[in-house]
């Protein structure tokens, strides 16, 4: 491998980068070498929100995972085209809208008493966008809405009918179904035999040839709200969930693209059905299928009925956005991420060790110290199926080395370590979460940070000069003001004590 310096801070202007990237592919069940279809260009589609309600932490973990993936691919010198869809037409969206309210429905903050389906969808789309922004998840290249791509879906359904893999409902309705028995490779993504699959529950069985056939087009019902149906060759109706992603992915990325991703819970039936209908229509579709693990609470699945759910808003109320992002991105993307009461405190402490070194080191230089290249060990970790935990270990090891260089007054080494740390922080997006809207980033807090940093730097100078009395006096003064200073292997950290 070879890593050379950036010409500037833009990752697409990396001079030279030899990469041996590997990713786990769900379809093959193995880690495979990753080579873009077009050299230097990577196309990625991952499933975004079905905007029926507010985002939960699993949605946001997926967004953080794929944000890190894109940042890393860009750092490696690729131009990345990222598509993240918005599903804004869906059974649950319609059922929660004004026209479908039950007589005994009680309005809540999430669901006002009067709201059309499209207004509800747009409101929750904005809630997702706010959560993404709060955690530094960058906007995709394209973010298509399902309702804006009905013609493409109708065209794709017609291709499947013409190829003998779809049919209009046997009961004469406008429903159209994918014939799962017509496609020998159905089940390839999740490695299931069709005999072991459950019936598709997305439409009534009465019009199907096989209960496992899934809906491509759903006929308009009398109970559907106004504006929730489109004309089609089979009659008025709306698309099924699965056909939406196939149509949008191929519209923006073509019939053959590099990576399709999403949460582990989407593998079946959603992604299985996407793969089947797309390949049955003649599209190659995705070269890699990448799925991130789910989020649990102290080892248990998060569930409203159990009462152990934690929302992004709750996390952001408990910790800085950057610390929440650190927590959501710190585990290997394929593994389960477990939330426990001290999880955010641990993430914030880890982040503060990094920031403390950056703040302390930056004071040595008159000019801003930018980015450089990541250490080879960091690159190797990221190339190894996006192994963020190992990459974070390299980041913290570099922080420790930088603190040692600071203590030794080795300014040249400090600058080198600082550049490496800055670059790794950029790649992981740990400096991307805006902090301005948080109370913790008020003017008074920023002033406190500056004053404490100055005192910690003065203490470090005293310790380096073996002036232990002055060093202890500074620590005692900070303690009296409610500032707890800790010396750790990763450097000095501080926090405001709640005891005072």
Task: Provide a compact summary of the structure.
The chain is an alpha/beta fold.
Folded structure, characterized:
The chain has about 500 residues and is of the alpha/beta class. The protein has 14 helices and 17 strands. The chain has helices at about 55-75, 90-95, 115-135, 150-160, 240-255, 265-280, 310-320, 320-330, 345-360, 375-385, 390-405, 410-430, 445-465, 470-480; strands at about 1-5, 15-20, 20-25, 30-35, 40-45, 80-85, 165-170, 175-180, 215-220, 235-240, 255-265, 285-290, 295, 300, 335-340, 485-490, 490-495. The chain has a 4-stranded parallel beta sheet. Helix 10 packs antiparallel against helix 11 (about 390-405) and helix 13 runs antiparallel to helix 14. The radius of gyration is 26 Å and the shape is elongated. Mean pLDDT is about 90; it is low at about 1-20, about 100-105 and about 435-445.
């Amino acid at each position: 491998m070879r890593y050379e310096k950036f010409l500037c801070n833009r990752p697409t202007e990396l001079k030279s980068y030899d990469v041996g990237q590997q990713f786990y592919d769900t379809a093959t069940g193995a880690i495979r070498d990753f080579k873009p279809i077009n050299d230097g260009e990577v196309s990625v589609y991952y499933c975004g929100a079905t905007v029926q309600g507010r985002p939960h932490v699993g949605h946001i973990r997926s967004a953080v995972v794929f944000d890190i993936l894109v940042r890393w691919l860009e750092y490696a010198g690729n131009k990345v085209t990222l598509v993240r869809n918005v599903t804004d037409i869906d059974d649950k969206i319609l059922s929660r809208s004004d026209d479908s309210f039950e007589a005994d429905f009680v309005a809540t903050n999430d669901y006002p008493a009067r709201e059309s389906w499209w207004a509800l969808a747009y409101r929750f789309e904005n809630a997702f966008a706010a959560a993404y922004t709060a955690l530094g998840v960058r906007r995709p290249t394209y973010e298509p809405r399902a309702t804006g791509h009905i013609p493409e879906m109708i065209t794709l359904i017609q291709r499947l009918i013409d190829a003998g893999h779809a049919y209009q409902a046997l009961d004469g309705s406008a429903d159209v179904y994918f014939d799962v028995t017509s496609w020998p490779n159905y089940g390839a993504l999740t490695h299931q035999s069709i005999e072991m699959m459950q019936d598709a529950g997305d439409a009534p069985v009465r019009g199907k040839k096989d209960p496992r056939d899934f809906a491509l087009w759903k006929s308009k019902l009398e109970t559907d709200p106004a504006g929730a149906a489109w004309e089609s060759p089979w009659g008025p109706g709306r698309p099924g969930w699965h056909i939406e992603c196939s149509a949008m992915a191929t519209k923006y990325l073509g019939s053959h693209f590099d990576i399709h991703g999403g949460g582990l819970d989407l593998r079946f039936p959603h992604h299985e059905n996407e793969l089947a209908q797309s390949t049955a229509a003649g599209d190659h579709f995705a070269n890699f299928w990448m799925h991130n693990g789910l989020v649990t609470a102290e080892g248990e699945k998060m569930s409203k009925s159990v009462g152990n759910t934690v929302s992004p808003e709750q996390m952001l109320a408990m910790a800085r956005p950057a610390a929440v992002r650190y927590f959501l991105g710190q585990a290997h993307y394929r593994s389960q991420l477990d939330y426990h009461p001290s999880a955010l405190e641990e993430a914030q402490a880890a982040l503060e060790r990094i920031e403390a070194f950056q703040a302390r080191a930056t004071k040595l230089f008159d000019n801003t110290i930018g980015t450089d290249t990541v250490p080879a060990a960091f690159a190797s970790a990221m190339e190894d199926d996006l192994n963020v935990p190992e990459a974070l270990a390299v980041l913290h090891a570099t922080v420790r080395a930088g603190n040692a260089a600071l203590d030794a007054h080795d300014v040249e080494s400090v600058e080198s370590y600082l550049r490496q740390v800055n670059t790794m922080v950029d790649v992981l997006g740990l400096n991307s979460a805006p902090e301005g809207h948080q109370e913790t980033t008020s003017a008074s807090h920023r002033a406190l940070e500056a004053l404490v940093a100055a005192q910690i730097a003065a203490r470090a100078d005293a310790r380096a000069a073996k002036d232990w009395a002055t060093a202890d006096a500074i620590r005692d003064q900070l303690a009296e003001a409610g500032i707890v200073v800790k010396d750790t292997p990763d450097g000095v950290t501080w926090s405001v004590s709640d005891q005072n």
